[in-house]
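Rotation project, supervised by the postdoc (A.L.). Task for the rotation student: set up a whole-complex structure prediction and record inputs and outputs verbatim in this book. Inputs entered:
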Amino acid sequence: MSNQRLANVFQRCKAEGRAALVGYLTAGDPDPETSLKLMLAMAERCDILEIGMPFSDPMADGPVIQAASERALEAGTRITDVFEITQAVRQAFPELGIVLMGYANIPYTMGFETFAEQANNVGADGLLVVDVPPEEGHICDDILATHGLDRILLLSPTSTDERIKLACDNGSGFIYYVSLTGITGADMGDVSEIQAKTAHIQSMTDMPVCVGFGVKTPDQAAAVGAFADGVVVGSHFVSQITSNSGEQAICAALSASASAMKEAIHGAAT
Ligand SMILES: O=P(O)(O)OC[C@@H](O)[C@@H](O)c1c[nH]c2ccccc12
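Outputs recorded:
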């Protein structure tokens, strides 16, 4: 059973007539201590925080998020640090949606059971494991459900109806529509095509559909937020960590850019 927190987030946003803002940062970037402060700054402005578990071979990620993983690992970030950060964010923001995102290697090595139990204990609501597709769900679906974690599944422009159905039947929390066939941080594709595919997926499920990959400006967030149930922004936020120096400046930049994204989404609400 899902813990309902993600469902509540989308319900609240819907009541306000707007899409949810989903912000991504890699845990431990640039180091665990600073990372917590950055996460807290983001949590204040986002509806859902997607917390990345740093991994040495993040094959779905572009250069910006790859470098974030490298910084975090270089600074000694371990899964225990990821859980500690998650717990501290949860304590400060009881209503925030929190999704742990990463590659199968980490939960697989720990054992999905142990991983899911700990993720739930520290207050995560869902898990996005990029490289465990719905076809492989037997590895973790039941375990996640037992531990109250939603299983976030990805769809892409090339997903067939059969695959959309599979993801909708096996996923929970929300569907993550990857707007392009590429890696994180790429340039966003044609908005009307993204809108058409999003609407098609929405017609096949009651779950909220969040759209991510390539959203870098408030205008793009507004355009996507006008039809999606949630807008995911990753690389744009992560890039603030290297384009500003010092913890305070990075926090201020993240707050400002998350506020700008949120306001743009609000403005686009019908
Ligand atoms: O960075 P972008 O283009 O804004 O895309 C969001 C993305 O970063 C975040 O959701 C994410 C980071 N790593 C991923 C791997 C797979 C799917 C999603 C992700």
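Student's summary: The two ends are 32 Å apart (CA to CA).
Supervisor addendum: The longest helix spans residues 247-268.
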